[in-house]
Please model this.
Amino acid sequence: MSKQEKPTAIDLFCGAGGMSLGFERAGFEVAAAVDVDPIHVSTYARNFPDTKAVCADLTEISGEELRAETGLQGREIDVLFGGPPCQGFSIGGKRQADDPRNVLMSDFARMVSELRPRYFVVENVTGLMMGTSVRVLESFVDQVYRSGYAVILPIQVLDACDFGVPQRRRRVFILGYREDQIAPQYPRPLTDRGGDRNGGPPTVWDAIRDLPNIDDFEYLLYTDVYEGELGTPSDYVRVLRVEPGGTNDLSAPRPGGNGRLTGCLRTRHTPVTVERFAATAPGAYEPVSRFYRLAACGLAHTLRAGSDKSHGGFTAPRPIHPVWDRCITVREAARLHSFPDWFQFHSTKWHGFRQIGNAVPPLLAQAVARAVVRALPLISGGQ
Model:
């Protein structure tokens, strides 16, 4: 499919680009992406060189200004998607109805009204549908309704593990469409947890068993780049280790890793910490740090982002490796999130884990994007 034939998308609140990658894999040209965090925008631009990445505060920019900034004047936008910052709704922290980040849902609705996309997709935490946060959701639906859009009801919660990701991660997805368009449908699960239909989701060990024990390499205390052999991949990892363009992947070509794997920076744990980790059984929480130890044959718990410096700079608990007595690396977290090995995050552990924890797993995003593609007359028969 040529670039001219691909439907056009814009990613709002793009972060490192997990949702963009899923939409690109499903056949979209992600023409523009916006985020207020310059570190995220820099990471995004590195991984998506053909997308216009803009560092901007969406509360201070109009749809017309965004079109001008990204060269999209007069061009039809097929889908507008994104995940407004969710900390104000999160059940993993303190859910606050008056968190100033909550107004970004309203700004997304405003962008829908001003950019007039054919479709839109919003991703957020399940807390958006609980307690006082429901008012924010109802206000959003009312805003887009008054702008000539409909929302697919009931709004659904999707779990990443139902779409081929080795992680339990339940998120709200809001699918909307302009009233002159065909209504999309939510994607159906691709994997079956009972294993009696399409097979169960990949496990933690499926995701990381081919990666080296980084504690064997002294130089990884000073660089995040591993250079060496990898083990035999699982079927799940085989997809993540190849360049774009494989089965069911319509994304643009990227250069291969050339034997280099980023995100492998070691953590120097104290001997006491190592002893505590060693005494923690897989599937249990270490009692002092409250870090969860992954079970090789199970699924990862939701990988969390922590908070940025303007909201306390808290580091989210990092899981303990199921075999080695250490926390997992950024690359191991990326594998559990379905990011391919060519994808590069910020080289520090703090920013790298934050970028992964904030991201939509690409395989989940791809499933949602395909649901939108099926509703697009342009290529409705192609996916």
